[in-house]
Design a protein that fits this description.
Rossmann fold; 6-stranded mixed sheet; 3-stranded antiparallel sheet; globular; about 25% helix; alpha/beta; 8 helices
Length: about 300
């Protein structure tokens, strides 16, 4: 039997993400098909689409947590398994009780060199871990929270500590699943300012999912919009426009811009529940993904004023 070909070397010139004909599935259900991506290192990409469109599935595939059904996925020139230690991932939800009696610094420390989980550490390794934790908390502007209990923190503070945990090991890419969910406008802005700083200081590639596009307009370099099992990647002007969105959804869509806000809505009538949205009124409440009907069906409402798109 011929030996397996050696993996392509990861270089600075390699795309942060390269996908060709990518197909992802949850059991028998195909979530995404024939996805084509080329994301350069150091870019911030906003990931949008309705619940079930495949946002979390894509982030988990990039993190090496969901296998590829078909096609090719390369991260910095290597496979997701080869790049896994270079990826920091912050999941959307944490199981109940996961924070009980944990200080922030202990929560961050729990992810240090995860391959050694459960093994005793020498004094030298304990010192290395303490240093890594301190640097990660500092990078996330959360050093002042180190001694606080995780269950005592506000939503914005907790999100910063979760990002610090993702940074406790050396990473090149940060994946954030709904990092703005249930945060007030000030906390949302704080998280987005942190994303901008991490990209500038550390050169990180960042993919973050959200339901409302407006807060991210002044932060992201590109938009990846998922709908109907497909996706489109490009600038805000290339993706958030009627022709591109109509092609994704398979029905006429309209885009309105007013006073720094972007509104996306179907050209005629009500958008079906499984249609896409950047923001709907159901998410103004407990973010329980219950899809309660909006009082303005098919209309996407922005919550915050945003700057000009990049």
């Amino acid at each position: 039997m011929a030996p397996a070909p050696a993996p392509e070397p990861a270089t600075d010139a390699a795309p942060a993400v390269l996908a060709r004909g990518l197909c992802l599935a949850r059991g028998a259900r195909e979530v995404l098909a024939e996805l084509e991506l080329h994301i350069a290192p150091g870019q911030v990409v906003g990931l949008f689409g309705s619940n079930g469109a495949g946002k979390t599935s894509l982030l988990q595939a990039l993190a090496g947590l969901l296998p590829v059904r078909r096609g090719e996925l390369r991260l910095f020139g290597g496979t997701p398994a080869q790049a896994r230690r270079s990826i920091g991932y912050v999941a959307q939800g944490v199981p109940d009780g996961a924070y009980a009696r944990l200080r922030a610094r202990d929560f961050v420390a729990s992810a240090w060199r995860g391959e050694r989980w459960g093994m005793s550490l020498s004094p030298a390794l304990r010192a290395q871990r303490a240093d890594a934790v301190a640097k990660a908390l500092e990078a996330a502007a959360a050093a002042h929270l180190a001694q606080r209990g995780m269950d005592e923190l506000s939503g914005g503070e907790r999100q910063r500590v979760c990002i610090a945990q993702a940074l406790v090991n050396p990473v090149r890419m940060l994946l954030l699943d709904e990092p703005l969910a249930n945060l007030d406008p000030r906390s949302q802005r704080g998280v987005l300012d942190l994303v901008r700083e991490l990209r500038q200081r550390q050169g990180l590639t960042v993919l973050l999912s959200a339901h409302d596009i407006n807060p991210l307009l002044g932060v992201m370099d590109r938009v990846l919009y998922l709908a109907g099992g497909r996706g489109r990647l490009g600038s805000v002007e290339q993706v958030i426009e009627p022709v591109a969105l109509s092609d994704l959804y398979g029905l006429p869509m309209r885009v309105a811009r007013h006073d720094g806000y972007v509104f996306i809505h179907p050209a005629r009538g009500f958008m079906a529940e499984d249609g896409g949205h950047c923001h709907d009124h159901a998410h103004d409440h407990a973010h329980d993904h219950s899809h309660a009907p909006s009082q303005e069906p098919g209309r996407e409402r922005a919550r915050h004023t945003a700057g000009d798109a990049p």
